[in-house]
Amino acid sequence: MYQGREWPYPSEIDQTETLTADVLVVGGGIAGCMAAIAAARRGQKVILVDKGAVKRSGAGGTGIDHWESAATNPCSRVTPEELHKAMMDDNDGYNNPISHYIECREGWDRLLDIEQMGGKIRDTEDEFKGAEFRDEETKLLFAYDYHARYTLRVWGTTFKPAMARELKRLGVRVLERVMVTSLLTKDGKHGSDCIGATGFHTRTGKFYIMRAKATIIATSRPARVWLFSAAYPGLCEFRPLQCIGDGHAMGWRIGAEFCMMEKSVRAQFSASGRSYPPYMAGNNHNTWYPATLIDATGREIPYVDRDGNILPDVRSRCYPAKGQRFFLKGGNVEEAKYEYLGPETLPWDKLKEMGYKLPFYADLTAMPEHERKAIWGLMVGQEGKTMVPVYQYLNNAGFDPTKHVIQCYGAGWTSAEFLPQERQLFGAPGGFMNDWYLMTNIPGLFAAGDALFSSNCYGHAAATGYYAGRHAARFAASRSLHDFDAHQLEQERERVYAPLLNKRGFGWKELNHAICKTMQNYCGELKEEGLLLAGAERLSHYEKDIVPYTSASNPHELMRLLEVHNILTVAQMILEACLVRKQDCPPLEFYRADSGGQAPKPFLVIRHDGEKTVCREVPLDFAGDVKENYERRNQDYIEEKEVG
User: Does pTM surpass 0.90?
Assistant: First the structure.
C-alpha cells in the first residue's frame, strides 16, 4: 500500500535485466554526468545509473551560484599551481592533492564544456554591464576576489539540463530511478577486480545486473550519520535526501580503501527541525558574500582583512590585503597572520563585548546596485536548493532587497547553533583513496566528485568526473568483460528484497534515528577508546539483530531503507577510522580524550579485508610534483586542447 492506495506501478520484482557496457557510471550528479560524457566521447559504450531523474538529480542538480576552480580562465591572475598550493595549505596538507590539482587545472575547461552544451556562464544580456566584477570583453562575472578573478558567478540552474541533453546526444544509456546496491567482483572474491554492479528499479522493483569493463563511483558524500529528523527528512542535510554516500558503503564491502574517514565537523548545514534552509540568510562565507551585516540597532558589523584591518567599504571586501596575492572564496584568507574572524564567524560572546545587539540582519539596502543584484537574484536563486524555498518564497512574501533587511544566523546567535556531538561529513570529508588515474585499489573501480576523499564543490565534481571518465575509457579499451559469480549475485538479490518479505518490522526512519543517536553518544566531538568500542558494538548489534527485521512495503520505501543500511555501514567505517587514529589531529577536527598529544603527519588509509579493518600510513605529499605527474599521464588530453 502507498498512503492508503495501491502502489501505482506494476510489480517487476520477479524480473531481471542484464546489461553490458564498457564503462558503468554509478551516480548521475555533476561528476557522474561528466564522467559518462567523457567516456562516451572516447567511443566507449556507457551506462549511467541514478536513483533520481538525471535532469535535476545529485547535490548540484538544482543549481550552483559560483565556480571556484577556473584558474585558467582568460581573466585569471592565479595559476593552477598557486591555487592548488593555497587549497593544500588551507587544510594543513590534509587534502586530496591529486583531485584538487585536477580541479585547478581543468575546472575552466569543464565550464567551457558546459557552455557548449547550453549552460549559461556569461552575462550575455548585459544585466551587470559596468559592474566592477564583470569583464566587459568576455562578459564573465567574478566572485569574492575581484583582483584574482579565478572564481566565477554562473547561472548554475541551467547546467544539469544541459548535461542531460548531451548524454542523450552521445547515446549514453541512462537508467533513472534505479538504485545501485552492490559492486560485483571477479569470481565473487573480496578485493578482486570490479566487474560491474547490481541494482533495482525504485518504482517497479526490477532487478538489474550491469556488467562493465570499468566502473566509476560518482555518488555523494555520506550524510544523516549524526543528524536526522523523522518529521523533516528533506531538511536534514544541505544536499538532497537521496545523497547519503551509497558508494562509500558499497566500496567498503568489497575492500576499497578510504582516507580521512575520521574527520567530522560540527554540524552547520542541517535543519533537523530547529535551524533554517542553508543560504536563506547569513553564512556569507559563500552565497551572501560580501553582504553587509547589521545588528538590531542598525550598527554595521565590520569586515576585516587578513591582517585584522577593518575594511571601510563594500568594495574593499573583494580585494586582497596589501602584499596578499589572493584569497580563497568568501574571505577564507591565504597566508593569514591570525585566525580569521569575519562578521559571520565571530562568536556571540565576542560580539556582545563589542556592544552588538541581537538579532542580526543581512542588509542589502545600502549596497551598490550591482552587488545587491548579484547576491539577491543571481547568487541566491542559482545556489542549490535556493531557487524555490528561498528566492521565490521570500519574493512572493514581499521581500524587497532595496527596502528590507533579512534576519541571519550564526554561531550562538540563534537556535541554529549545533551541539558538539552533532557532526557532519562536511568541509573536505573522507572518501575513496585514489591514484593519479582516480582509480581505487580495486582494479577497474574509479571514483570522482564527492566519492573521493577531501572532495570539494561543483568545479571539483565536474573536473574529476571528466578526468575519471576519460581514464576509465582508456582502461576499458584494454579489458574484457567478465561473467558474474552466481553465488555473489544470489546473495545480493536475497539481501535486497528481504525487507519486502517482512510484513512488519523496523522502518527506515527508526533505524536512521537509532544510528544518529549512537553516533552522537559514542562518536561526538571528543573521542575515547571505550566510547568508540561501545559505539562499534552497538552498530554491530543493529547490523546483526535489527537489519534482518527491517521492513519496506514498496520499492520506494525499499530504496529509503537500503540507503539507511548504507548509512549504518558508513557509521561503522567512521568508528573504525577513529579507532586507528590514536592521537589528536586538529586539521581533521579530531580529538581524543585519551590522546597523548597531537597526531603524526600521515594519512591513515583503511579498508576491510573481509574479516577485519586494516590500516596503512600514507604521507601527506604522496602525490609528488603535481604538475609533473599530471602532465606525464595526460599528454593526450593536453595535445587535444592545443589542437582544439
Answer: yes
